[in-house]
Amino acid sequence: MNLTLEEISSAVGGVLNGPGSQKVTGYSIDSRTLQPGALFFAVKGPRFDGHDFVQQVFQKNAAAAVVEEPTTTYSGSTIRVKSTVEALQTLATEVRRRWGKPIIGITGSAGKTTTKEMVAAVLGKKFTVLRSMGNLNNEFGLPLCLLRVERYQNIGVLEMGMSAKGEIRKLASIAEPNEGVVTNVNPVHLEFFKSVDEIAEAKAELLDGLHYPKVGYLNNDDSRVRAMSRKFSGRIITYGIKSVAAFKVQQIQDLGLDGTAFTVHHDRRDLQFVLPLLGQHNVANALAAIAVGATHDVSWEQIREALAEMKPEKMRGQVVKFREGFAVIDDSYNSNPRALSEMIRFMGKLQGFQRKILVAGEMLELGPEGSEMHRNCGREAAKAGFESIIAVQGQAAEILEGAFEAGMDRSRLKFGRDAVETGDILARTVRKGDVVLIKGSRGVKLEQALNTLRAEFSSMEP
User: Fold this and answer.
1) 323: buried, middle or exposed (CB in 10 Å: 19+, 13-18, 0-12)?
2) What is the C-alpha to C-alpha distance for residues 284 and 28, in angstroms, rounded to an integer?
3) What average pLDDT does this structure show over 383-406?
4) Are 186 and 339 in contact (CB under 8 A)?
5) Domains contained in the chain, CATH given
6) What is the pTM of this model?
7) Secondary structure of residue 69 in the 3-state scheme
């Protein structure tokens, strides 16, 4: 929506200094990627201040800059406001209201981005979809996604993340979603919460913030998500693998590194799907997309087609095969105890490889229970039959202790201080017939270990 500077200034309650008739062709908070004709919001972050780059954006032919008081003289048009972040969010809400189409918000402790991509792909078979790019799901990213909306798009799918109470409530107040998907509640961000129940309350803020017709899609396998229906006044649509639900998985067939085949029972029908993504947790994510798609009258054939075309997001379960005869599952984007356990169980069932190797990074923001959570994952890995485990950084050493307690020999347990050292260890360890799972929190940057393998060996990536 190409608004004029005058319209934008009025919407955010700002003071315009410059011609009001100029239309804006984009929005940015990053001077490095700003395109000519875009409006620049000079937001302040913990390590930067956008006001330091205002002159640079004018050199790039920005339409104008939204800046905070006090007055500074700039060489281009400005809109002065009390808070540039609030102005960004207020404008996003104004654009959302002008657009006026349904929005589906997606939250949960794990699987948000994958679920968002699946929901968008399924709905994309019938609608023109506005969706979050990558994982732009916070107070800056979500408004920027809304500001990219085009008039021809007729439904939105937006990811909503949080690390503290009230954040999802704020995102919902900006986007005014009509429907909400809650994937799960896991013990993540426990540094900022007293309990997992508090995390559940924070996730439920999405349902609290829904606008008419208020539809909630809830994972019935998660007791805390299931409980959210008690306080929700809108329509509930449930999905589940283990529990009774409106969309219920009846059967799962493991296809190894080719993904999963599964049957869904809904409305007295059994429907078959093939999903080329790894692990049972992705079946749950697909179920959410199936529930949303069916509710919006996407045909079963179209839903089936959309899921069959899914490809893993970068560093989220990508399979990388090497000409030397081994394979790596790159799940290095993020990790938490539940997600790591899911992938350990998947690896335990995986057939066709001589040895299985786990590379597990330190899981961050787990609070005082972190040590025991790491140990539990180590115990699970030992029982799953891994040939060796490489734990990376800090508290990940507890994974090795858990594996040792469960009977693994110390000689098969290694510790890497960082991702670079781990890459060197892995390059010396891996051989033909191996499958390696690389699972890590974002802060550990385990993709660097995979890059070492790419440098040492010949990957078969396109």
Assistant:
1) exposed
2) 35
3) 97
4) yes
5) 5-81 (3.40.1390.10), 100-308 (3.40.1190.10), 318-456 (3.90.190.20)
6) 0.88
7) coil
